[in-house]
Specification:
By secondary structure, the protein is α+β, with helices and mostly antiparallel strands. Helices cover about 20% and strands about 45% of the residues. The chain contains 5 helices and 25 strands.
């Protein structure tokens, strides 16, 4: 009897320890502070414990917002809204849903943003050239190693896309890179920071014969920055996205009275910037943004590096599916996403099952008397 009691007590102690550990793993958001450095505003999310990785974030164009998700984090702040009138920020909403805390930064207009971790803080950098600000913290060895990390351009190619669009395809040596894509004059400028450009790629490509808005592509380097210029003609719009180590800039002719969403995509525009994120987590971000129910097959997996700026959400979803060989079926407000082969096999089996049911049904004969 004493042995039974001892085992029960040990089991209760183990259960209590497990519960304690589960609570210990939970983080807490204590405060949200705002500071300004020149043209850049920094939103500091103060936590009890440092995060293991940079929190996921995405941006919307209309309304202009930046959304940051803190996983396994509870909100200990007394207020749900923080009124801010600094830079481009209007106010900040803090919402807790389950074991996740969401920070919604409402902006006056769409601007660039970046995220970084520093001690017990998650910092969101907001400004036209959002990038981590140099600080005095950290060892000199780490700073030197970071300064020596360089990306490289492996290839620059051009292809003609659908509806007369021109695609500039840039293959990179590394997924993680600092890239700035912007419209400048009658063209698009692509700057790759801390990157190298091989001598054979320092050239100009004349692509007028492809009957696309893109006329010329030039590549040059200055120090540790590579600049690729895309010269276009006529009325056009552009979108840019990065999947893994490939950066694609698509320049599409814009018809009169066309809003420029491109290729029939009608979704609300958003921006995404993720390094090595799980595909299932990325699908969840798109589901949260659209309000649709997304059901992913168990066979959907893998990681993806993705960089999108002002792209319709349905095009963003299309890019993710193309990058991982996925397809979708829509029923009402539910999206079923699975590998293409799996969906085709499922549909083929359903058709075969219906055909078998039709063959097994008994034959029925009826006689009708016609007046004419």
């Amino acid at each position: 009897m004493s042995g039974c009691i001892r085992r029960v007590l040990l089991g209760l102690i183990a259960l209590l320890l497990g519960v304690t550990n589960s609570y210990a793993e939970q983080n807490t958001l204590r405060a949200v502070e705002i500071s300004r450095h020149a043209e850049q505003v920094v939103v500091r999310l103060k936590l009890d414990k440092p995060l293991a990785k940079t929190p996921a974030s995405f941006a919307t164009v209309a309304p202009a917002r930046i959304v940051v998700d803190l996983p396994d984090t509870t909100n200990a702040m007394s207020t749900m809204r923080k009124t801010v009138d600094t830079g481009e920020i209007r106010h900040i909403d803090i919402v807790q849903a389950g074991n996740r805390t969401r920070i919604v930064i409402n902006l006056k207009r769409p601007v660039n943003h970046a995220a970084r971790l520093q001690d017990h803080e998650a910092q969101i950098l907001i400004g036209e050239t959002a990038h981590p600000i140099a600080t005095a913290t950290g060892s000199a060895n780490k700073a030197a190693a970071l300064a020596m990390e360089r990306n490289a351009v492996l290839d620059i190619d051009f292809r003609r896309g659908e509806e007369g669009a021109g695609r500039v395809i840039i293959d990179l040596a590394r997924e993680q890179s600092a890239i700035d894509v912007r419209r400048q004059g009658q063209g698009v400028v692509i700057d790759l920071m801390k990157s190298a450009l091989p001598e054979p790629l320092k050239r100009r490509l004349d692509v007028k014969d492809f009957a696309a808005p893109v006329q010329e592509i030039g590549a040059s380097s200055s120090g540790d920055m590579v600049r690729i210029t895309v010269t276009a003609a006529g009325q056009w719009d552009h979108v840019a996205w990065q999947t893994d180590r490939r950066l694609v800039v698509e320049v599409k002719p814009q018809k009169p009275n066309e809003r420029g969403n491109g290729r029939g995509y009608r979704g609300e525009k958003l921006s995404l910037n993720f390094q090595n994120i799980e595909v299932r987590a990325l699908l969840q971000v798109i589901a949260d943004f659209t309000g649709l129910n997304v059901v992913a097959s168990d066979t959907v997996g893998g990681n993806l590096t993705l960089r999108l700026k002002d792209v319709p959400w349905d095009q963003a979803l299309d890019i993710v599916m193309q990058a991982r060989g996925l397809d979708m079926r829509k029923s009402g407000n539910v999206l079923w996403i699975a590998p293409k082969d799996e969906l085709l096999t499922k549909e083929r089996l359903e058709l075969e099952q219906r055909a078998q049911i039709n063959e097994l049904e008994p034959m029925v004969t009826e006689t009708f008397q016609l007046n004419y």
